[in-house]
Structures are given as structure tokens and as C-alpha cells.
Design goal:
The chain has a domain of 38 residues. Helix 1 packs across helix 2. A hairpin with a 2-residue loop joins strand 1 and strand 2. It has three helices and two strands; from the N terminus they run H-H-H-E-E. A two-stranded antiparallel ribbon has the order 1-2. It is elongated. It has 94 residues and is mainly alpha-helical.
Length: 94
């Protein structure tokens, strides 16, 4: 069990500012987390395959089809400066 003094020390090391009236609540929450971790470490996980994500899903992919029209010439025509199909911008680094 973490004491209020230990919670203050952890907060100091983590550079977290905890108000004095909240120290007891933090101690209770941290003790709950540590208790859960202790319970979980006692479980037999032999033969359990590690997961990268808790949801066993695959991401939906859209078809690789062009949906926009080519407007390059239009965009180049309204740009302040272009050369050989490239946009020219002011030099910012010497």
C-alpha cells in the first residue's frame, strides 16, 4: 500500500503538482491500480498469444480509385510563381 508520503515523492519525481487535499485520493487510486496489476501478474498466461490490439479487427480499406479530376493546370495558373511545373517560394534559409 502506498502512503501519502510515497505518493508525494512519486509526484515530485514525475514533476507533477498535486494539491494536498487530493493526495489521499491519488493514493487510493494508485493502490487500486497496483492491486489490479498484482492480480493480473498471478494469472496463468501460458499458451496465450500476445495481442497488438484488444479488438480483433482489420481496418476497412477503400478501393484505390481516382475520385478527383486533375486540376494541376488551374492551380498552377493562380499560383504567384511557378517554373517547370513546380511552385516557387521565397527562400527562408540562407
Amino acid at each position: 500500500m502506498l502512503s501519502a508520503t510515497e505518493v508525494k515523492k512519486i509526484a515530485y519525481l514525475a514533476r507533477l503538482g498535486i494539491e494536498e487535499q487530493n493526495v489521499a485520493a491519488y493514493a487510493t487510486d494508485l493502490n487500486g491500480i497496483l492491486t489490479l496489476m498484482t492480480q493480473m501478474s498471478e494469472l496463468n498466461t501460458e499458451g496465450v498469444k500476445p495481442m497488438a490490439h484488444p479488438m480483433d479487427q482489420v481496418q476497412r480499406l477503400r478501393a484505390d480509385i481516382v475520385t478527383e479530376t486533375n486540376q494541376r493546370d488551374y492551380f498552377q495558373s493562380v499560383a504567384p510563381q511557378t517554373e517547370s511545373g513546380l511552385y516557387l517560394v521565397p527562400k527562408v534559409i540562407e
